[in-house]
Specification:
Blueprint lengths: L11 H4 L13 H6 L6 E4 L5 E3 L7 H9 L3 E4 L6 E4 L4 E4 L1
Antiparallel strand pairs: 1-2, 1-3, 3-4, 4-5
Length: 94
């Protein structure tokens, strides 16, 4: 899916997302390994891994972003169409 909206602050990381990666499965890939639980899911726009949000006990998406320096995630929740950039605290709907 192509990104249609760009944040007002012009975040270069979000602007660089040409096609939004969608989740392969609607599970947190790390929580599955540790038998953990998640609240919401996010998909890394660099490598495509789907992980849990900051409201989840393990916060795997944020941990992944900081460890790998992959800047942008997309909501993997049905009906939600937004991107978030960790380094710039940028947000855009698409």
């Amino acid at each position: 899916m192509a990104v249609m909206a760009v944040p007002a602050d012009g975040c270069a990381h979000i602007t660089a997302v040409a096609d939004v990666k969608q989740p392969k499965k609607r599970v947190c890939e790390e929580c599955v390994h540790i038998n953990g639980q998640w609240v919401h899911l996010r998909t890394c726009q660099e490598c495509g891994v789907t992980l849990c949000c900051d409201n989840s006990p393990n916060r795997h998406a944020t941990t992944h972003a900081h460890a790998t320096k992959h800047p942008v995630i997309a909501s993997a929740e049905p009906g939600e169409r937004w991107l978030y950039c960790y380094p710039d605290d940028g947000f855009a709907e698409y």
